[in-house]
Amino acid sequence: MSTPAVSDAAPAVLPAADTASGTARGPSRPRRTALVPTVTLLLGALYCLLPVAWVVIAATKSGRELFSTFTFLPGSGFTDNVRELSAYRGGLYWKWMGNSALYAGLGAVLSTAVSALSGYALAVYRFRGRESLFNVLLAGVLMPPVILAVPQYLLLAKADLTDSYLSVLLPLVLSPYGVYLSRIYATAAVPSEMVEAGRMDGAGEWRIFTRIALPMMVPGLVTVFLFQFVAVWNNFLLPYIMLSDDEKFPVTLGLYTLLEQGSNTPALYTLVITGALLAVVPLVALFLVVQRFWSLDLLSGAVKS
User: Fold this and answer.
1) Measured in Å, how far apart are the chain's first and last C-alpha atoms?
2) Between 228 and which of 26, 92, 108, 163 could a Cys-Cys bridge form, CB atoms 3.0 to 4.6 Å apart?
């Protein structure tokens, strides 16, 4: 009886079997990098960071170096610029920074509180006209601020509140975008079962909001606070219309006055650039502080999902 012939060819390499699942795995393929999205993101990052790099480098130059040296060549006058800026009109720049901190800090806190209450009410309570009211708020999100500036000035002028701190703070208390975010977050983060359980235990509506709903809404409210703080800090149009006393100016409007010194006084370019760089520092510090709240929010969302 003849035996089968043995082939001299090398046996074919079979794919390795997965001992855990019993399935065969083929050879691993190299990971492919998406070239177009990567290049697009890098170009976008360069576009955003290039002006920041220019401000940082230009703040180190003196007035002579600013127009006579290469754009991205650092200078040696940063400390002199800071000293001159601090000495301008007896430290008026730091008064502007304090005003910006007051407007942005207090305005963001009040706006976040109003947004939390409004968003929670729109998310939890059922009443006639709720969706219509919410749609009106959404229309306010789409409304450009320049359209509301003149009517707000006329209303505050009737109340004799122009050229005061309240003329800048009051229009910032209600933020349609903050109310929208608060409602969306309250709908997702506050279970209706917990609200009903609190009512069954005899808790009042205010106690349910402060003890149950508010702690769950903290990550979303931190985002509302940050957005509103940045928006108020960078606001220029409203203070420009409302204020005439430069002692009450925020830093954005104050730096603008350094460029508009009149025909007999040259524009203080180095002071404006240095002041703009120093004005960014509080925003960067705020982002670093609230970053951990965003991380907690992402982790809680991953657990819930």
Assistant:
1) 67
2) 108
Residues whose CB is less than 8 angstroms from the CB of residue 240 and which lie 6 or more positions away in sequence, other chains included? 253, 256
Cα dist from 149 to 117, 172, 232, whole Å: 25, 11, 14
Q: Would residue 54 count as lying in a domain?
A: no
Comparing C-alpha atoms, which of 58, 59, 76, 63 is closest to residue 274? 59
257-276 tens-digit pLDDT: 888 775 555 668 889 999 99
User: What pLDDT shows up at residue 260?
Assistant: 77
| Distance separating alpha carbons of residues 10 and 14, to the nearest angstrom | 12
For position 152, which CATH number holds? 1.10.3720.10
85, 275 contact by CB (below 8 A): yes
Q: Which domain holds residue 246?
A: 80-304
The pair of three-digit structure tokens given for residue 132, joined into one six-digit string: 């219509």
Return d(Cα 74, Cα 72) in angstroms, integer.
Answer: 6
- How far apart CA 125 and CA 136 sit, in angstroms, is 17
> Residue 212, SS3?
helix
The Cβ-side half-sphere exposure at 209, using a 13 Å CA radius, reads: 14
Q: 150: how many CB neighbours lie within 10 A of its CB? A: 10
Indicate the pLDDT class of residue 131, thresholds 50, 70 and 90.
confident
Q: State the total domains in the chain.
A: 1
pLDDT in tens, 106-129: 999 999 999 999 999 999 988 888
